[in-house]
Amino acid sequence: MTKILTNDLENKQFSSLLEFMRSASNGKLAGGGKRIEITRLTNKRVKFLLRKFLHTNHLSEYNVLARADTFEIIRIRPEAKSKENERLKHPMPFVPIPPPPIAVKPRLVIEWQGKPPTKKTRNKK
């Protein structure tokens, strides 16, 4: 016997879950309050059906929590933002400034020592 606890679901969602489980499974269902008990289904199949129900009804803020023979549909609550983190952030993000372009690459610069070399003259024959 597998139990499904749905304390976080609203009444309308619970009734649609009950109808979905009846139509999608061949196991015996017993419901009381916001609890459903299922027999003749594996835990893997029950978890699959619960996730499928949440996905098809666009209930992305809910998730399935599995414990032994009990599955619980819980609402995922996002963590509250702390004001300390907002104070620590710099108002302008740091962007490194690229160096200015150089006309001639440093490896191509030749430093002359003394006089420049003389031009070679060609002898015509």
Run of helices and strands: EHEEHEEH
Low-confidence stretches: none
Mean pLDDT: 81
The biggest beta sheet, please? 5 strands, mixed
> How much of the sequence is in beta strands?
15-25%
Fold-level CATH name of the domain at 2-75: Gyrase A, domain 2
The CATH class designation of the domain at 2-75 is: Alpha Beta
- Largest sheet, order of strands side by side? 2-3-1-5-4
Q: Could you say what the CATH architecture of the domain at 2-75 is? A: 2-Layer Sandwich
Enumerate how many helices there are, as a single number.
Answer: 3
- As a percent range, the share of helical residues equals 25-40%
Secondary structure class reads alpha+beta
Brief digest:
27% of the residues lie in helices and 21% in strands.
Task: Kindly describe this structure.
The chain has a five-stranded mixed beta sheet with strand order 2-3-1-5-4, covered by helices on one side. The chain has a domain of 74 residues: 2-Layer Sandwich (Gyrase A, domain 2), CATH 3.30.1360. The termini are far apart. The chain is α+β, with helices and mostly antiparallel strands. It has three helices and five strands, in the order E-H-E-E-H-E-E-H. The model has no long low-confidence stretch (mean pLDDT 81).
